[in-house]
Write a structure and sequence with these properties.
466 residues, mainly alpha, Cytochrome Bc1 Complex, Chain D, domain 2, 3 domains, 3-stranded antiparallel beta sheet, two-stranded antiparallel sheet, 20 helices, 7 strands, 4% strand, globular, Cyt_c-like_dom, signal, transport
Length: 466
Amino acid sequence: MKGYAMSLNRVTRWSARAAWVAAVLLVAACNDATVPKPPEPAQAPKPKTSMVPSLVTSAMAAEAPGATASAASGAAAAATSASPAPAANASSEQIARGKYLARAADCAACHTSAAGAPFAGGVPLKSPFGTFYGTNITPDKTNGIGGWTADDFYRALHDGVAPDKALYPAMPYTSYRQMTRADSDAIYAYLMSVKPIAVPNRKHDLSFPYNMRFGMRVWDWMFLKDTLPDASKGQSADWLRGRYLANALGHCAECHTPRGTFGQLDKAKPLGGAALARIAAPDLTPEALAARGWTVKDLQTFFGTGIAPQGSAFGEMYPVVHLSTQYLTPDDLRSLSTYLLGDAAPAPKPLPDNPDTSKLTAGRNLYLAVCAGCHAADGTGKPHVAVSMLGNSTVRQKDPRNLIVAILDGIEPQKFPGLEAMQDMPGFDRRLTDAQIAELSNYLRVAYGGQAGDVNSEIVKQLRQK
């Protein structure tokens, strides 16, 4: 989602700066023969060297709502070089399908601000390199993409190149690169059908040397690949469709995969979790999901409604459900969940029957004083008020970061599909000391999460200061 929104320590940031300067000098010194160019917009897109079979790719395009082509014709559409029909001639079926795909690709999260018009841009994306701003992708010809062709749009998604500049991977073309041409054209047709909004784009606020766009040419040459590695294993139709939903459209890896020194995805740890924002994106590998009690059925419920027995979506994941996954079809929800756990999903790990909390009296007393009113004395929660702490996925994470941050900052009130909602959770940063939050966290982790009570006040202090 937010390709450059990652957390780097000071040494790593200086290493990245040095590397970027070297890349800039390299680009300045190189001629056109040494650094390969992406194809011109008018050219046919080259066939991808993806390991995904063409039949699978076609099926992914055909399964989306409104698709009228067969699997074979979908594969042909993805591989052929014929220029698509102008958006003005797009059928209502293609536009409807494009709307579905735009939701599956979570376009609104970065291109629709809280108080702005749909797709008019302005969403700030903070990173160690500076702040990026989501751009206007309405059909406005001055500020948006109204002057783009379908070829231009595909090239932006596939190669990270706009008609007038190279794109930063804050726009996740590193994942969108796997999108089929047919799906790209459908999203383009849909975006061309929305209301044009004359909102100028905000200039990215980036520090030197990251504000020198031509350095991206070397970055793409080094790190832009046709496929992403899989965290799970499978060959079923659901797994293959889920791979496309997760890796291409949903771009899950952009937040849930660690980053290397140069800001590239660490492909040795696909979906292994990363601290991109204050709330970290957790590990989504099958083993880690099973260790937190997830099943395919529960994941389907979570993506479709935002709430499951393991808790509710919050932080960066809340808008993902609110703007994207709740609109997926039941079949796609099943496929996405199947892909994450794999065809042979590991059994969910049970909680200990009788956790030893005898040494955590201070933490238990804090829980009863400030938490039990909403989450219940036994940690089972209250419907439509607060989620259960017993078996809660955040409580069961090995890394206590998200639990501590939730206690410090609180969680805003949440509205979910249908009539479901959760009340706001107040933050306790001013009410509890670092030592008290450590005691409370340890009680929650041991009593309800089957984790070690190893949180100390120094860990809390560091997160409080961020």
